Amino acid sequence: MALAVTPAKNLATQVMNYVRDCAQNGSMAPGEWYSVYKLSEELGISRSPVRDGLLRLEEAGLIEFSRNRGFQIVETKPSDVADIFDMRLALEPRIAARAALARSDEQLAQMRALLQSMEASVQSGNEPEFFSWDKQLHDAILVAGGSTRARDTLDKLRTHTQILTDSTVRNERSLEQVHSEHVPIIDAIAKGDAQRARQDMASHITATGRLLLRQTLRRRNPQLSEAEAEQRVEEIWDAHTREL
Hints:
Helix content: over 70%
Order of helices and strands: HHHEEHHHHHHHH
Mean pLDDT: 88
Distance between the termini: 53 Å
Strand content: under 5%
């Protein structure tokens, strides 16, 4: 059945979500070549936004795309997830610390308003809206920390995370829990406590990263026991995020 016509950017996103879901549920297998034309027909989307979506998936490392052969799935490794969050840990805690020292009253008011909007989405159970506010809150912290140039880098890392992994909310934690992780960060920024802001941001990113790493590991190795999975999470996480 053809999908409803929406702007090209949304069509490319639909393509990305479809291919990601097929990769995760096994209906598209690594190593097999898939036709761009067949995918276009199957989704009822013209080839241009299909190619746009596939190129974004290739950039994130989920597929290998060839204009002549089509595309094939590249299996996501747990180390890919740990690598993404290592980069986030290198940037966001430091920026949150700077935001605690440099934020204006207006910027703080914006962060608090975004936090309240997240809470409202918790109450309504609107997950897409919640994560839209979540992204805006992280962006507001970047601006308050004087790091607007980091926004594109972090946007790309968040996009890669969404493409490569499942949502931690659906399987591991509630929207309320995610919201609660942001509260101490904003409190620390409000109090001008740079060390606390750095620590709380690092804790939030670490909690998310480890959950997504565990999901990816269990999806690839469903036979692992809980103890074995936890051991592998520790090994992979430590290998990528330990300070040398």
